[in-house]
Amino acid sequence: MIATTPTCDSSNWFNFVCTAIQSRDQSGLIGPFVQHLLSAVAIFIVVYLLGRVTRMLVIWAMRRGKADRQVRTLVRNLIIVTTYVVAVISALVVYGVNVAVILTAAGVGTVAIGLAFQDLLRNVLAGIWLLLEQPFRLGDTITVLDQTGAVQNITLRTTTLRTGVGELAILPNLTVFTGIVINSSHYDTRRLSVGVRLPPGADLADMMRLARKAVEQTPGVDDKPGIAFEPILDGEAPVLRCSFWVDQREQDPDAVTVAVAEHLWDVVSAEPAPEKPKTRRSA
């Protein structure tokens, strides 16, 4: 079998590059190689740009249709993965690789990549499943392990949280998928607690009555399920703990908690009115 020397493809966009190289290369191999390589890179860039435009148009249409933000994130991630796969396969085909070889290599490569990057693939699959199952939504406040924060994004590999102190917590999707997740934003109402130390010798019943009245008048506190008080012995002076419910969809839980704490402090720190001295009647 006689091997043939590769030649420039006159119908290719980069034929002029191949011709220019062939005129200076005595072996005649570099020109066709560069021509096919440039064609493969060009088709990869074209498919990648088409994928980006498609992704932008689809996300724009979904936003106009008021689609769920989490569904938009899932579609965005799937389009990104599809774009890269199609771009790579197209580049290989344009370069001259046989389709059967690509499919065979893809089967073998999938096993090899799966073994080498199994953690990465597991995180990608976990991220897709989280977006499909929706145990929490973007913007919800969740707790995973020792991290608590609002969900900012679910990417292909990680889930990002904004903690209460303004830090960014990056968690692998697999950790979130297999771990215990506490979603504090799942229900409309949330139970909060505030504790305040009572002054020595205070009348507990009177304090609870005044504290209940003050908390009931605090804006943002729900009447149902109700307000509960629990005295706790802590040293000489007891601590009065108040538990109340807040509609976190309508109110800011932190702001309501601060307001309740201020009202309770006003109650316990109020000085009792001094008794008026008794006047003696002269006989």
Would you summarize the structure shown here?
This protein is an alpha+beta fold and 283 residues long. The chain has helices spanning 15-22, 30-64, 69-95, 99-116, 118-133, 173-178, 204-216, 253-269; strands at 141-144, 147-154, 158-163, 168-172, 181-183, 189-197, 228-232, 239-247.
If you compute it from the alpha carbons, what radius of gyration comes out, rounded to the nearest whole angstrom? 34 Å
Low-confidence stretches: none
- Series of secondary-structure elements, N-terminal to C-terminal: HHHHHEEEEHEEHEEH
Shape: rod-shaped
User: How many strands appear in the DSSP assignment?
Assistant: 8
* C-alpha end-to-end distance: 143 Å
Q: Helical region count?
A: 8
In terms of structural class, how would the helical and strand content be classed? alpha+beta
Q: What is the makeup of the main sheet?
A: 5 strands, antiparallel
